Amino acid sequence: RRRVLRPLPLRHPAAAALTPGIDEPVRMSSWHLATPDGTVRSGGEAVAPLLRLVPGGSPAAALAERFPAFVARAYRWTARHRSTLGRWVPPRARRWADRRIAIAQGL
After folding, report:
1. 85-93: Cβ within 8 A, 24+ apart
2. For residues 8 and 15, is the Cβ–Cβ distance under 8 A?
3. What does pTM read for this prediction?
4. Could you read off the pLDDT of 7-17 as tens digits, one per residue?
5. Residues with Cβ < 8 Å from 63, sequence gap 6 or more?
C-alpha cells in the first residue's frame, strides 16, 4: 500500500543492476530483496526484511528473525515445490498479481 516495493522479473534489465555481483544463474535460482542502501538479501534470508516493509508484517518479521534456520528450510521447500503449489493459486489471483507487477514496472 505504501508503494515501497517494486517487483521485477529476474530477467528485467533492472534486476541485474539491483543485484550487482550476483551472476545470472545464481540470480535466477532464487528471489532477491534489494534495498535503497544497496544491501541484497536472497531466499529465506530476505523474508524478515521484506516482512518489515509490508503493513502489519512486523510480528511475522520478528518470528522470521527468531527462527532463521526454519525460514530458510521453509523457503527451500516452497521453492522446490512451487510448480505444485502454484496449481492452488486461483486464476483470478494470478491475473491480479500479473496486473500489479505490470503496474509496478510501468508497463
Report:
1. none
2. yes
3. 0.77
4. 888 888 888 89
5. none
